[in-house]
Amino acid sequence: MEKKVFGLFIIILLLIGYTSQATQNIQAPSNRANEHGQKAKPPALPSVQINPEQPIIVGEEDDQGTSSKKETGSHLFDPLKIAAGDTVAGMKVLSVEASTVPGSNQQTATVRFSGEATISGEYTCHNNDELLGSVIAFTVDDQEHHQLPRITYDERKLWFVFSNHDEAAKVFGSPGSRGRATVVINDYIIRYAPTDTYNEARLLKVIK
Fold it and tell me: If you write DSSP's letter for every residue of 103-117 in order, what string do you get?
């Protein structure tokens, strides 16, 4: 009887050992299959700090060194503070030449503009004037000074000569003629210096 019990006990142990080994053999390939089938995790991306865009201020240089164009709110301007492309009194600046006379606080300036302006005033057809020669001068009415660009420190009477003299002479008459008119001009040029000089403009048409 004892031999039978002992033999049965041996058989049970053998069955338990066989079952455990079989289970391990089945699970091992499954684990290896999972290891090969699992996708690799992508590498972590470095963190990036985003800075807000810096605004470009009108009238100052941007990162490329180009000057932003500006429009003044007045017909008065400082020639040392404007540049080609700026707009004054509705006229675009084409070029600026400005400097200070050495040994003084006086300034010289030549500023060229493009754009039209309609103004009223008095014309005078000079003939061999001591300073001007044979030119046609136009003096702008005081109430219309704001129609043209003007240097802030320029206290001269506002007048100019027509650069296209021959065309103007056909309209305004012979030397010695005087009168009033409303005209349309362009290509306005300001010349300022501590000496005798004058402004110029091109006559486009006479309204009246």
Answer: TSS-EEEEEEEES-E
